Amino acid sequence: MENIKKLFKSVFMNDPWNDDWSDSEQLNNYILDLAGNRNSLSIGLYDGDELVGVSLGSIMHWCSGTEYYIYEFFIIRERQDNGLGTLFLTEIEKYVQKMNVNHIFLQTEREVPAYKFYQKLGFVELEGHASLVKNV
Fold first, then answer.
1. How far apart are CA 14 and CA 70, in angstroms?
2. Of 29, 42, 64, 121, which residue is the least packed, with the fewest Cβ within 10 Å?
């Protein structure tokens, strides 16, 4: 858990995200929200003993089949842009196919490099879908 939080902060508290995860209790609760549910599927990528990538998601059963919904996918900053993310997602695809998963679903922002990365790997935008949020 501590390694996941450390890697998460090193990625998402820097460009291009610049998220504020300084509240360690909030971060801990967020990671537990993603990794602690009944259908969670959290996968780590290691280089020896070093955690270099993480996928936090869950298995969702939908009318069109079973999905792996990725909430967070991240690679250590020093190793980005060298094929590690592609390798990791390829291995994830192989792994979830054995679980009879037929879709991988994720969301990202259009203005960040991750958008083009996912497109390069065959992810497409769902037509007619929108992400909505309301501050309360």
1. 21
2. 64
How far is Cα 102 from Cα 107, in angstroms, rounded to an integer?
A: 17
Query: What kind of fold does domain 2-120 have according to CATH?
Result: Aminopeptidase (3.40.630)
Contacts for 6 with CB less than 8 Å, ≥ 6 apart: none
DSSP 3-state of 4: helix
DSSP label of 67: E
pTM (predicted TM-score): 0.92
Structure token pair of residue 67: 């999905």
pLDDT tens track for 18-43: 999 999 999 999 999 999 989 999 99
Locate the domains of the chain by residue range: 2-120
Which residue type, as a one-letter code, is found at position 45? L
The span from the CA of 116 to the CA of 83, in Å, is 14
Q: Which two tokens stand for residue 28?
A: 């801990």
